[in-house]
Amino acid sequence: MPKEYPLKNTEYRLPHNLYYRTLYIIRDYNRLKEDYENDIAYKPPVIDGAPKDKGAAKPTENTAIKLAGKHKELDAIEKALDMIPGEYRHGVLQSIIYRHPYPPYAARRTYGRQKHRVIYYTAKYLGYI
Known about the structure:
By secondary structure, the chain is mainly alpha-helical. The protein has one domain (4-44, 57-125). Helix content is 61%, strand content 3%. It has five helices and two strands; from the N terminus they run E-E-H-H-H-H-H. A two-stranded antiparallel sheet has the order 1-2. The longest helix is centred in the middle third of the chain and has 24 residues, at 59-82. It is elongated, with a radius of gyration of 19 Å. The two termini are 18 Å apart.
């Protein structure tokens, strides 16, 4: 039987591989956000009609497809963060992305529970479960 995370709370259990897949999507949050903002500001090159380059056949469509995928992931992470109380969001996000220790104003177990909720709901909003 494969491992499932979290081990204690049965409501937010995920299969081992799905847990880590979702965890690494959340760890990529800052890069995704930066790329998304850069892609919005992207201006496709001007095509002069000469048959030199066939790679830029549909630059606007290709950019829109990339933006849609990044938006889905960013939206799932942000919705999942909204599912936990506001005072834990920053600490949980810092713990996941940068592996910083939790802030001292709440119990480690409380932060762990909130972290598992964020990972579970991100997987749910991405359509993995």
